[in-house]
């Protein structure tokens, strides 16, 4: 029986759903965006929109650049020069490239100057430094404060490349879309969909899944949560790369201003996915891969400045703040 | 689309509320790719689904071959798909895919690229970021 039960089990996952209003003094939206450091993908969905405004398009085009430095010794990140040139300015993030958090040694630099090392046992013992065991694996985590020209010239002795985030813009027509009420996070029977249903639907839209299958369809029975409505069109924008939290804050602010003028759209969404191999999710909360490495969040911005915020993590993660 | 004047009036600001859901997802999502040893083997979506069902049946029997399984997206050119399975069936589906070795006598293997209870996580894969 125990074996049968195990066959039906899945790793634990958490979804935090919050609702609030951007006008509330204690709204934490800014803080939660600013403390989610290593962002891989930002997606925007705007219902009933065929073209991005000039301001939003400019912000989207200016989310980069980011830099790739090969074979950089770790000690370069803790030199006085590096700290004064980049870390003290407060907007510097770094993450080791092509290292899997569940297999390899990984290093991350946070904007507040903390250097996080996630190491396997052997490397940890070689360093001789003080750390603590990982909550979720046999690894060791170390955190250091790196007690702030450009990147290209600073690392000119190493192979450094400048990259721009990839941007994909598209419109979809005749899109089935859930009906939401900003005050009803859990949804309302026959009247509005819940926050988890909305998050699921967003995933289907950005994966380009068919949303209108018949219940007896052989291939897929997936359909849009009910109640739903049909949008004549919707604008999708995705930005992929290494994106700073500050840039995401600017995007969020601009999307809040989307409703300064009357719009057909009842709400817009901004979704952010973190790097699966970052050693942290929010702030210094430990993040691990387990089966998916997901740590993502999504804003639903309503036309009355109410918002929903969904934060999702997998098994080897603390509960989002 | 017609909106009434009442619907256009914004509602008053909502109050703060926080809900923490533990294991809320009834489904898990898998991004998979089928690789054949020899090139030139094609399957349409229906054949692909039939292959998944027979993999489940071979390992777990008739009952589990009827587990609710959807192919949300399918690309015939690359034989890659996003699957949706009820969460209680994830381990069975995953192990069936792992142990599938051939299709119509041709050697093949499933590559599981991403798995998540959140479909939104499958729209991007940071492990696919290539910089050099």
TrEMBL record, chain A:
Signal sequence, start to end: none
GO-annotated cellular components: multimeric ribonuclease P complex; ribonuclease MRP complex
One BP term from GO: endonucleolytic cleavage in ITS1 to separate SSU-rRNA from 5.8S rRNA and LSU-rRNA from tricistronic rRNA transcript (SSU-rRNA, 5.8S rRNA, LSU-rRNA)
A GO molecular-function descriptor: ribonuclease MRP activity
Protein's name according to its UniProt entry: Ribonuclease P protein subunit p40 isoform X3
Automatic annotation (TrEMBL), chain B:
Cross-referenced Gene3D superfamilies: Ribonuclease P, Pop5 subunit
InterPro entries xref list: Pop5/Rpp14/Rnp2-like, Rnp2-like_sf
Location of the protein in the cell: Nucleus, Nucleolus
GO MF terms, alphabetically ordered: ribonuclease P RNA binding
Pfam assignment, any one: RNase_P_Rpp14
GO BP annotations listed: tRNA 5'-leader removal
Major place of residence: nucleus
SUPFAM superfamilies recorded: Rnp2-like
GO cellular component, one term: nucleolus
The entry's keywords: Nucleus, tRNA processing
Keyword Nucleus: yes
Signal sequence, renumbered to the chain: none
Subunit structure: RNase P consists of a catalytic RNA moiety and about 10 protein subunits; POP1, POP4, POP5, POP7, RPP14, RPP21, RPP25, RPP30, RPP38 and RPP40. Within the RNase P complex, POP1, POP7 and RPP25 form the 'finger' subcomplex, POP5, RPP14, RPP40 and homodimeric RPP30 form the 'palm' subcomplex, and RPP21, POP4 and RPP38 form the 'wrist' subcomplex. All subunits of the RNase P complex interact with the catalytic RNA.
PANTHER family cross-referenced by the UniProt entry: RIBONUCLEASE P PROTEIN SUBUNIT P14
Family stated for the protein in its record: Belongs to the eukaryotic/archaeal RNase P protein component 2 family.
Biological role stated in the UniProt entry: Component of ribonuclease P, a ribonucleoprotein complex that generates mature tRNA molecules by cleaving their 5'-ends.
Protein name: Ribonuclease P protein subunit p14
């Amino acid at each position: 029986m125990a074996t049968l039960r195990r066959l039906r089990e899945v790793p634990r996952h958490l979804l935090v759903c919050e609702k609030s209003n951007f006008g509330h003094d204690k709204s934490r939206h800014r803080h939660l965006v600013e403390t989610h450091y290593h962002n891989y993908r930002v997606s925007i969905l705007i219902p009933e929109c065929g073209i991005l405004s000039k301001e939003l398009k400019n912000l989207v085009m200016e989310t980069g650049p980011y830099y790739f430095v090969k074979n950089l010794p770790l000690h370069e990140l803790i030199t006085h020069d590096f700290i004064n040139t980049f870390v003290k300015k407060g907007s510097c993030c770094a993450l080791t490239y092509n290292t899997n958090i569940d297999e390899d040694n990984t290093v991350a630099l946070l904007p507040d100057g903390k250097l996080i090392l996630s190491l396997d046992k052997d490397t940890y013992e070689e360093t001789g430094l003080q750390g603590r065991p990982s909550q979720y694996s046999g690894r060791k985590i170390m955190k250091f404060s790196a007690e702030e020209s450009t990147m290209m010239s600073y690392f000119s002795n190493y192979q450094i490349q400048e990259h721009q985030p990839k941007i994909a813009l598209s419109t979809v027509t005749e899109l089935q879309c859930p009906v939401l009420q900003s005050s009803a996070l859990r949804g309302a029977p026959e009247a509005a969909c819940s926050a988890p249903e909305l998050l699921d639907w967003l995933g289907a839209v950005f994966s380009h899944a068919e949303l209108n299958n018949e219940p007896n369809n052989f291939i897929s029975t997936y359909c849009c949560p009910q109640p739903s409505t049909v949008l004549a069109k919707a604008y999708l924008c995705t930005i992929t790369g290494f994106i700073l939290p500050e840039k995401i804050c600017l995007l969020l602010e601009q999307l809040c201003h989307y409703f300064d003028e009357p719009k057909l759209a009842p709400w817009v969404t901004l979704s952010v996915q973190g790097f699966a191999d970052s050693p942290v999710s929010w702030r210094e909360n430990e993040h691990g891969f387990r089966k998916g490495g997901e740590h993502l969040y999504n804003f639903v911005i309503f036309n009355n400045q109410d918002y929903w915020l969904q934060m999702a993590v997998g098994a080897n993660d603390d509960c989002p703040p | 689309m017609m909106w009434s004047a009442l619907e256009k009036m914004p509602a008053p600001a909502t109050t703060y509320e926080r809900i923490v859901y533990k294991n809320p997802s009834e489904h898990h999502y898998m991004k998979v790719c089928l690789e054949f040893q020899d090139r030139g083997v094609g399957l349409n979506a229906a054949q692909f689904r039939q292959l998944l069902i027979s993999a489940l049946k071979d390992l777990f029997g008739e009952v589990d071959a009827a587990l609710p399984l959807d192919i949300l997206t399918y690309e015939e050119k690359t034989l890659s798909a996003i699957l949706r399975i009820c969460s209680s069936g994830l381990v069975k589906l995953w192990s069936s895919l792992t142990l599938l070795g051939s299709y119509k006598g041709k050697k093949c293997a499933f590559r599981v690229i991403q798995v998540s209870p959140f479909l939104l996580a499958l729209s991007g894969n940071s492990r696919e970021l290539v910089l050099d």
